[in-house]
Amino acid sequence: MAEAGSGPIDRLRVDVSWAADASAGAAETWIALLEELGFITLDRAARTWSALPLSLAVLPGAVHAMLLTGGPSRPRVLSGGPLPRTEAASARERASLVGIAALYGGSFLMPGEGVIGVRRQGRPFAVVARHPLEACEEGLVSPRLRGVLDAALAHAGDPSRVIVTDWFTAERSPLLIVQQIAPSRGRGAGRRTVSRK
């Protein structure tokens, strides 16, 4: 996408479906999310797409591939609206944390949000589940997550005990999160981000 900069939507759907080993429907959903997030613009009448500034996007499916999106010839201005909050996405974030909350006797910290508070050996931890395309890294945090992270930090009392993951990782690899709650000696301080590699 970054190299081509633009092209037919049908070809993009085929390429995404192939690269992610995903169905055409999943590829169509992913392309729509790219547009909503401001990575690409779609001209549905002309059946074409064009890239916006360079970014990395995780492809859907079992392959765990990333795609460099955007084009170098455009100005480096990120545009687009916020990630749409659907009831299904909120429910999935929360559902991805139910097992971890049950394991540690934890509870949800905010109604309708994927954030739990747990205790391990008397120390409070917080786990935040976010949408896989929602930004949460140093210097770039989705506006919706700011309040969630504040609640997580208020519970944990220390950024090194706030664990941020996407709901896909929380669903498929909860052991990665459990390992962060019960870390081996010598882990660095600061908020931790967990994702499948």
Task: Write structural notes for this entry.
The chain is α+β, with helices and mostly antiparallel strands. The protein folds into 2 domains: about 5-70, no CATH class; about 85-195, no CATH class. Helix content is about 35%, strand content about 25%. It has helices at about 10-20, 25-35, 85-95, 100-105, 145-155, 165-170, 175-180; strands at about 5-10, 40-45, 50, 55-60, 65-70, 105-110, 115-120, 125-130, 135, 140, 160-165, 190-195. The protein has a 5-stranded mixed sheet with strand order 6-7-8-11-12, sandwiched between helices. A 3-stranded antiparallel sheet has the order 1-3-2. It has a two-stranded antiparallel sheet with strand order 4-5. The longest helix is centred in the C-terminal third of the chain and has 14 residues, at about 145-155. It starts with 5 loop residues before the first strand and ends with a strand. Mean pLDDT is about 75; it is low at about 70-80 and about 185-190.
Order of helices and strands: EHHEEEEHHEEEEEHEHHE
Give the DSSP E fraction (strand runs of 2 or more residues).
15-25%
Largest sheet: 5 strands, mixed
Q: Strand order of the main beta sheet, please?
A: 6-7-8-11-12
Low-pLDDT stretches are 72-80, 185-190
Computed CA radius of gyration, to the nearest angstrom = 18 Å
Number of beta-strand segments? 12
**Number of separate helices:** 7
